[in-house]
Every structure is written in C-alpha cells, then in structure tokens.
Specification:
Blueprint (H helix, E strand, L loop, with lengths): L4 H13 L4 H14 L4 H13 L3 H14 L4 H14 L4 H14 L1 H17 L4 H11 L2
C-alpha cells in the first residue's frame, strides 16, 4: 500500500524541521501536491522550498495556487509576496496587508510567521526579499 498524502506531508515536514534541504524535499512535496491538489498547505510548503532553492519562477506559480486555494493562509501570502519580489511582479503590498491583518487578529499567526521568517533567514542568510517582507510586516 502506498503512503497516504497526509503521512507523506507530515514526514516531509519532519524532515524539513530536522534540517533537510529543498533539493531532496521538493520531490516529496510535489508528490503531495499531485496526490492532494486542493490542500493549500502543501502548495505553500512547495513554494517555500522553491524559494529556498533559488527558483522564484516556480515558487511564484505554486504560491499563487496556494493563495487561490486558501486566501486566508498567511504563509501562502508571504510566500507569494517573496516570489513576486524575486520575479519583479507588482501588487506585493496587498498580500503584505492581508498577512498583517491576519497577524493582528491572531497572535499565533504572528508567532508562526515570525518563526518561519527566521527559519528562512537562517537557511538562506542575506535573503533580501524575505528581509524586505519581514520589515514590512513588523514595521510600526
């Protein structure tokens, strides 16, 4: 019997948290997205991995899909904003504003995004686009 997409997703997240890089995890999350194409979190994970792997064009495409599936997913909005910055797209501010609104409503969202951003900056130091997003989110 093949591994369920939830088990594959959970295993992929654990491997990521253990420090595994995007080069080995991208295929895992592509498979999760193939098996469960309507799960926004899977698309967000895949977009984040593409961003970490310096593949902003692919990240933009999957991040856009993640936001379309769940417009209230703050991490999906952040991934899309970073991908847009890295590919020279316009319209970044609206995604930052939605994420800021979600952070204002739920302190857990604020904490989760902060942890995610710090993780990204640890894995990819001097990540200019992510630093810009971080400054916009936490200004004033």
């Amino acid at each position: 019997m093949t591994e369920s997409f939830t088990a594959l997703f959970d295993t992929g997240l654990e491997r990521y948290k253990a420090g595994e890089g995007p080069e080995t995890l991208i295929p895992v999350f592509k498979e999760v997205c193939d098996r469960a194409p309507k799960i926004a979190a899977a698309w967000s994970c895949l977009a984040w991995l593409y961003l970490l792997d310096d593949k902003p064009e692919q990240a933009y495409k999957v991040a856009l899909k993640g936001v379309k599936l769940d417009q209230d997913a703050p991490q999906a909005r952040i991934n899309l904003a970073v991908a847009m910055l890295e590919t020279g797209q316009t319209g970044v501010r609206k995604h930052i504003e939605v994420a800021k609104q979600l952070m204002a409503i739920d302190p857990e969202v604020r904490r989760d995004l902060s942890e995610s951003i710090e993780d990204g900056l640890t894995r990819k130091p001097n990540w200019e686009s992510l630093n810009r997003v971080k400054n916009w989110l936490y200004e004033g």
